[in-house]
Amino acid sequence: MTAAAAAAAAPLTRRTLLRTAFTAAVCGATAAVLAPVLRARRPRQTLTPAPLTEETYRGRHISVDLASAAVRIDGRPLHVMRRADGSYLSGINHFQSYATPLELARAAVDELGTTALATGAPHHG
User: Fold this and answer.
1) Checking DSSP bridges between strand 76-78 and strand 70-73, what pairing results, if any?
2) Residue 43: CA atoms inside 13 Å, Cβ hemisphere, count?
3) Per-residue pLDDT reduced to its tens digit, 24-37
């Protein structure tokens, strides 16, 4: 009799049932913890972006150069930073990241309200 046949013929015990349930729970928890990490490592699948997007949002003129992620609100530049996971953040709200520069520009307009964006100052000296 082979080991597989012997295991199949063995009666189902409480110990075997608990061991199987524990193993399934550990595998499920490991998968749940690793899923976001593995998803973030995958490159984002994007189409070739249009070179320039312009729109009026809440009375403010937004222009976004998607190739370089340059954002202007009413003609004034907004400092945009690209994160390692491919999302974007700005100095207006650097605690929130956005999937596209256009979403970031809209959120900046929401945050600014009627206040004008400051003129471009030299960076780091």
Assistant:
1) antiparallel
2) 3
3) 999 999 988 888 87
